Backbone:
């Protein structure tokens, strides 16, 4: 395993796992290459406090390519090796976060371009920059859809 600097950018909602009890799938950007990595499994609630990271926080950790997952971004992480670093705080100027997240290694021109990368090299993480924004619509979910999701949590 090698020690890597990773900017955490995504942490999913916990999922129940028979093998790991509970996990969160976590994505980050490798500092060295500015490419996405998927870190799995991360047993976040079971981590000691000094290993519990937040979004947009730099961590150092030993990672290795996941053998059972063919996606190029998938890595396993040594939870005990994690060292927490600084957080890139939100602010009016998003440029500090953007320089790590929005780059040619992570951004695709279209969903079709991302799908081509998926077929070619099994790429499964990427951002799609829309050509133009047509509208934004926010709708409240009906109670019959909310209740099962709330019960699952």
Residues:
């Amino acid at each position: 395993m090698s020690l890597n600097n990773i900017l955490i950018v995504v942490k999913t909602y916990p999922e129940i796992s028979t093998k790991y009890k509970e996990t969160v799938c976590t994505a980050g950007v490798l500092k060295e290459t500015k490419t996405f990595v998927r870190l799995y499994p991360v047993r976040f609630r079971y981590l000691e406090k000094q290993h519990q990271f937040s979004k947009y926080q730099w961590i150092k950790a030993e990672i290795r390519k996941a053998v059972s997952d063919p996606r190029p971004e998938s890595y396993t992480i040594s939870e005990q090796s994690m060292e927490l670093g600084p957080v890139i705080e939100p602010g009016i100027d998003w440029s500090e976060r953007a320089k790590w997240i929005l780059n040619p290694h992570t951004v695709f021109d279209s969903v079709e371009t991302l799908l081509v990368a998926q077929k070619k090299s099994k790429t499964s993480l990427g951002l799609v920059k829309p050509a133009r924004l047509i509208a934004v619509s926010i709708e409240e979910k009906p109670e019959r859809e909310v209740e099962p999701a709330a019960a699952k949590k």
Notes: The chain has a mean pLDDT of 89. The CA atoms of residues 38 and 134 lie 31 Å apart.
